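Slack export, channel: ligand-projects

TW: morning all. Re-posting the request from yesterday since it got buried. We need the structure predicted with the small molecule present, not the apo form. The ligand is zinc ion; the SMILES is in the block with the sequence. No rush, but it would help planning for next week.
GE: picking it up
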Amino acid sequence: MRTEMNCSLCGYELTSPACIGCLKKQILAFVKGRASMKEDVEISMSLFKHFNNNNSSCITCKSNVAICSFCVYSEIYRLLKKKNKELAEEFGSLFQCTEEIQDFLDHY
Ligand SMILES: [Zn+2]
Ligand SMILES: [Zn+2]
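GE: finished. pasting the full C-alpha cell output, ligand included:
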C-alpha cells in the first residue's frame, strides 16, 4: 500500500521528512555567531508554521511534517542571498539548494 506523503508547498514526495523544528536547529547552527542572521532565520521559519498538515512525520523527533526540507532550505537560501552572498553560497552547497539546483529540478 502506498500512502501519499507530499510537500504542501511543492507537491514533491517527502522522502526523508524533517520537521520545521529540526530544520531550524540545523540552520541556526549554520548561522551561529551571526546574530542579525539568526533573527531573520527565526522570522522566516515562523512563516512555515502556517503549514501544519500532518503529511508525514519527522525522522528525528516524529513531529508533523507538512513541507519538504528543500522548500525550507530554498527559502533560507534566498533570505541569505539578500544579506550575504558568500554565506548564501556556502549554505547552498552545504544543503544543496542553490539556484542552479532549483533550476535543474524546476522545483518552483
Ligand atoms: Zn523533528
Ligand atoms: Zn517542498
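GE: first-pass observations. DSSP finds five helices and two strands in the chain. The CA atoms of residues 80 and 88 lie 5 Å apart.
TW: perfect, thank you
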